[in-house]
Amino acid sequence: MKTHRIASILTASLLALTLVHSAADARSRYRYYNRNASAAVQAGSTINVRVDNNISTDDVQSGNQWTGTITSPVYSSGGRIAIPAGSPVTGVVTSSVEGTHSSPAQLSLSVRSVTVNGRQIGLNADTQPIVAGSKRARKLGAIAIGAGAGALLGHTVAKDSHGTLIGGVLGGATAYGLTRHSGRQLQVKAGTELAFTTNNNVAVDY
Predict the structure, then answer these.
(1) Which residues fall within 8 angstroms of residue 149, CB to CB, at 6 or more apart?
(2) Residue 6 pLDDT
(3) Which CATH class is domain 40-142+183-198?
(4) Which of 61, 94, 103, 166 has its CA 20 to 30 Å from the CA of residue 187?
(5) Residue 142: what pLDDT?
(6) What is the pTM of this model?
(7) CA R_g for the chain
(8) What is the number of other CB atoms lying within 10 angstroms of the CB of residue 111?
(9) CATH 2.40.128.260 region(s) of the chain?
């Protein structure tokens, strides 16, 4: 009778230990797979960012910082939201080139980090250069100060058929008097949304 009781106690103890070990193992495996599923934003993923402030070739140079906000969720390779919409990002100006009489102004931007749930995570993502007067620049609403304003001024200065030409010259000269970079600037306005492509895998732990 006593032997039977001891055997029952030992069996119950072994069963309890097995259940505890199985539960701990399950939690460990859950954390492992959950972490890896949520963390893997693969290189080549698209990240849509809305810039917070105006960025102009007249005001910035290579290396200057800029900030923005993620506008749509970024998903992990496992299909989970890794970077929620509304997450703030920090980036740098990688190139700021003022235009000349023979070449347009250009602006290149990169993302360097994103903040998720209060934690800043390193992120390297680029977008195509924005070139003044290009189809992409027009689509983005990027402002390039050009001869158009001078042509408009020409209709005010002269009323005959030569007004546009004369005004174009006078308008350009007047604008250049206001700023030495006239006709050579490119500005990306605050609120502009840009699509960036990640260059590296991004780990996001929750």
Answers:
(1) 171, 175
(2) 56
(3) mainly beta
(4) 166
(5) 85
(6) 0.65
(7) 30
(8) 24
(9) 40-142+183-198
